[in-house]
Amino acid sequence: MTRVTTPGDLQAASAASKREDPELLYGLGNSQLAARDFSAAIESYLRCIAARPHFPQAYNNLGSALIEVGRFEEAAAALETALKLMPEYVRPLVNLGRALRELGRCDQAVERLEAALAQQPNYAPALINLGDALIACDELSRARQVLTRAIDLAPSVAMAHASLGICELLQGAVPAALQRLHHALALDPGNRKVAMSLGYALFVAGDWPKAWHFLQRQWQMSAETAGGPGLRLPCWDGVVGAAQGAVAVPRGSLALIADQGFGDSIQFARYGPELRQRGFAATLYVQRPLVALMRSSGLFDSVLAMEETAVADAVRPADMPPELPRAWFPLMSLPGCFATGPDSVPRAAGYLRADPQRVAAWARRMAGEPRRRVGIMWQGNPRAETGFLVGRSPALENFRPIVELDSVACYSLQKGYGSDQLALSALRDRIVSFADLDAGPDAFMDSAAVIANLDLVVTSDTSLAHLAGALGCPVWICLQKHPDWRWAYAQSWTPWYSSVRLFRQHRQGDWSGAFSDIRAELVGRPPLSRS
User: Which of 155, 192, 162 has the alpha carbon at shortest distance from 178?
Assistant: First the structure.
């Protein structure tokens, strides 16, 4: 993957690149960008810039392509360069505002977008992006005004209606939001972001069957990129009716692709037994750190690491032996196949199993602690925290109201991202940490065993929240005011896991209220009678 570099670095590109025609490369990049072939467009723009380093339009379009593939820091750098080369150029200001919003720098995004509007007050893309940035800042009233103005100027632009629909949803105007989002999708039926927004709104409204239909569009297209075509298999039609259930399907007939995050894989692995009960034999292709956990829990006929999908790559469906998959399907789309609703979530009480030997080993290491044992995790994967999910991970310091309780013994379950906060924190002497937690190749196995020895887990919206819930262990999740779709309900419980309680920010971006609520709950609990 070629990374964006500085103009000086680009000038040092090969002589062959310098001899290329920048106008032709710019036109090629534009065609690729229009066709949504973003990786190819990025390469074309980089070659164009190597041939002509002072080409602000190329830097702008490069930034736009980088945003589409989630490379937001690089996009911001490219767009800043475009502005240095042409300060009066409005489009890089708008795109930069978008990149900064995705990075969670909402105030800076608003500043840049307002600067764009100062130059072109009626530029609809700037208004739409400003509305999105204001939503991310939780300035919903102002966002609504800005987006309404954008619609007046550009009534046929689907994203203007979609953003206003999300704003209305967050303000509690659910019927108006649904109407607005349906209209947005009618304007642009193939827009994945609009479909995802409508699915989110339907989920909030409690209309799960319709929500799955729209959410599945996003997940299926993502899984196609992650593994479907690489398997050279047809996509399963998702029919799990009674007639299909009566038919014995050959072993390994269905390849399930877990293409999203660890937490997503854990949450939707619950559907493995549902498939088996209907005559399907499924192979789960999952992230390598989850393989041992999924195998030990016996949810699927077989479990392989994602990169092992190559086992079927050279075999065409027509001559594929029975032990290899006959079709593929994205794991996250299974709820829609089973028409899952709030009252029909399977295995909410737990479906994963911690290894008994590891549980016993960790019990010996944690023995002798009479206080309530609480595991804590603060930081999720920062690469997943973009757009409206920016800020879902509180800093360790926010856990102080819990850690300072004398009735609680806190254990760090943090691994990787965010672990450095513990070493620098004044709270470190009050938190037990294990340097060898999940240090081997079977990540999550030690975490599962430790959780089985805890009285409670308190975490942000992380994969660990799903792990504890899937184990059936008590877990309290601290959430943003406007959280991810799966926690969209306003109540303190979730139909996904019966052992989970949800604690929400009182104000967007302010964790003090959520942690005060958690502390009050802990203080109000009777002392333990552990023998």
Answer: 162
The tokens of 493 are what? 């419980």
- According to DSSP, residue 462 is labeled S
Q: What is the pLDDT of residue 241?
A: 63
Separation between Cα atoms, residue 474 and residue 358, nearest integer Å:
19
Rounded to 10 deg, the angle between the 56-68 and 38-51 helix axes is 160
pLDDT for position 438 = 87
Beta strand 302-305 pairing with 327-330: unpaired
Query: Order of strands, edge to edge, in the sheet holding 327-330?
Result: 302-305, 282-286, 254-257, 327-330
Continuous segment of H or E residues that includes residue 106: helix 106-119
CA distances from 125 to 113, 165, 181, 317, 446 (A): 10, 16, 18, 46, 49
Rounded distance between C-alpha atoms, residue 41 and residue 29, angstroms? 4
Sheet hosting strand 372-377, strand order edge to edge: 431-432, 408-412, 372-377, 456-459, 475-479, 500-504
- Mean pLDDT of all residues in 139-163: 97
Name the amino acid, one letter, at 99. A
> HEC profile for 273-326?
HHHHHCCCCEEEEECHHHHHHHHHHCCCCEEEEHHHHHHHCCCCHHHCCCCCCC
**Interatomic CA distance for residues 94 and 74, integer angstroms:** 16
Q: What pTM, to 2 d.p., does this model score?
A: 0.83
CB atoms within 10 A of CB 246: 9
Q: Where are the beta strands (DSSP E) in 322-440?
A: 327-330, 372-377, 408-412, 431-432
Distance CA 97, CA 137 (A): 13
Over residues 268-293, mean pLDDT = 91
Distance CA 266, CA 469 (A): 9
DSSP reduced 3-state for 342: coil
The two structure tokens encoding residue 415: 């691994």
Query: What does the longest C-alpha to C-alpha distance in the chain come to?
Result: 79
- Which secondary structure element, helix H or strand E, spans residue 254, and what is its range? strand 254-257
478 - beta bridge partners? 503
- Residue 483: CB atoms within 10 A of its CB come to 19
Cβ atoms of 241 and 338 within 8 Å: the answer is no
Give the pLDDT mean for 281-310. Answer: 86
With beta carbons less than 8 A apart as the criterion, state whether 79 and 99 touch. Answer: yes
Q: How far is CA 39 from CA 67, 68, 71, in A?
A: 11, 9, 11
Average pLDDT, stretch 283-310? 86
Is there a contact between 215 and 485 (Cβ–Cβ < 8 Å)? yes
